[in-house]
Specification:
Blueprint (H helix, E strand, L loop, with lengths): L1 H4 L2 E5 L9 H15 L3 E6 L11 E3 L6 H8 L2 E8 L1 H4 L6 H12 L3 E6 L11 H19 L2 E4 L2 H10 L7 E3 L19 E7 L2 H13 L1 H5 L5 E5 L15 E5 L3 H10 E6 L10 H8 L3 E4 L18 E2 L10 H13 L3 H9 L3
Parallel strand pairs: 1-2, 1-4, 2-3, 4-5, 5-6, 6-7, 8-9, 8-11, 9-10, 11-12, 12-13
Helix pairs in contact: 3-5, 5-6, 11-12
């Protein structure tokens, strides 16, 4: 351990708490684990108006030279980049980041990248279609610079394998831990309240309410008497009328969210089944032992071992009386804990 104490690690994310940014939340928690493991951790991100909660922190200028200056000044041994193109440039084309990391690589600094996103795609009439090739080119350039890369789900791992000359040999699919602190022990099912949690970005929460309104009888029959809404305020006028009251808690700390999740039995969301392995909301729900409904309209097969009817439930299907809600919740939690924070951290430590 004595040798690793001298190693300085620079974690890069677009923004950090108190800004609402999943990559920043992830980096802050990862940094905590690396610090506990004996490394000296620094944080860098694009300038933000409010003071950040992580230290030491360095505002990063979006140009090709400032990152190298930081690396040299702080004697950085390893750079860990949390990548999603739109986080670093509004069109998802951060050319400056490729230039900056190329200079860092030339100095012999180790580079690890977690690809939270690769590149966008979409119909002909969308900007995603026209920017697709530019974004893909940047992903490939970043991958070439890595000593090792990580991703959160099987679908993304397959895309990396397909798009890289080494067929993704440097990449590891390691899942995604919950940005909401994992409880030390789950509250027994019978002690939880028959509440339904709706958590996440406003747009996803609105989609979730729409799905809940279409299949009211599928969840109401299970005795749910209240919905708890957590997150940046959504447009209340757009939320369909539902047969139970909604309690809007707004923006809470991660610890407060964890407390609310622990007390509830149920969670709902709308997310493509094939990509559930990269959902931070699902990770939060499963890590807290909730029975999860996913209301995505088109059922898809997951490549991450997640099975509808075994680890979560598709909202379009009623829950038969013969199904044990507690068992589904437990199996979902067990799936999560094979990809939890400590398991995740070990993958990074193996490359440091």
């Amino acid at each position: 351990m004595a040798s690793c104490i001298k190693k300085h690690i620079l974690l890069i994310a677009p923004q950090y708490p108190p800004a609402i940014n999943g990559l920043g939340d992830y980096a802050a928690l990862l940094g905590q684990g690396l610090t506990n493991a004996g490394y000296t951790v620094h944080f860098a991100g694009l300038p933000q108006p409010t003071p950040v909660t992580v230290q030491p922190y360095w505002p990063l200028q979006a140009n090709g030279t400032h990152l190298l200056q930081l690396v040299q000044q702080q004697q950085i041994h390893t750079v860990i980049l949390n990548y999603s193109g739109y986080g670093y440039q509004r069109k998802g084309v951060p050319l400056w980041l490729v230039t900056a990391l190329t200079k860092v690589k030339q100095m012999g600094v180790k580079i690890l990248i977690f690809f939270h996103e690769l590149y966008a795609n979409g119909p002909l009439w969308t900007t995603a279609f026209w920017l697709h090739q530019a974004q893909k080119k940047i992903f490939k350039a970043l991958y070439r610079l890595t000593d090792a890369s990580f991703c959160s789900n099987g679908r993304m791992a397959a895309l990396i394998t397909e798009a890289t000359p080494d067929k993704g040999r440097k990449n590891s699919c390691i899942g995604l831990f919950s940005n909401i602190p994992e409880p030390n022990q789950l509250i027994p099912w019978e002690q939880k309240q028959p509440r339904l949690m709706v958590f996440g970005h406003p747009a996803m929460r609105l989609q979730t309410y729409e799905a809940l309104s279409q299949y009211t009888h599928h969840w109401l029959q299970l005795g749910i008497n209240e919905i708890i809404d957590i997150g940046v305020s959504a447009e209340a006028a757009q939320i369909p009328r539902l047969p139970v009251p909604i309690k809007f808690l707004g923006v809470l700390t991660a610890e407060q969210i964890s407390e609310e999740l622990q007390q509830a039995r149920f969670g709902a969301m709308v997310y493509p089944d094939a990509l559930l392995g990269k959902s931070g909301v699902l990770a939060a729900y499963l890590s807290h032992g909730l029975f999860v409904w996913n209301g995505f309209k088109t059922a898809q097969r997951s490549e991450d071992g997640l099975v509808a009817g075994e680890h979560y439930w598709q909202l379009q299907k009623p829950v038969p009386n013969s199904v044990s809600l507690e068992k589904i919740a437990k199996q979902g939690s067990e799936w999560y804990y094979r990809h939890n924070y400590q398991q995740h951290l070990q993958h990074y430590l193996a490359f440091l």
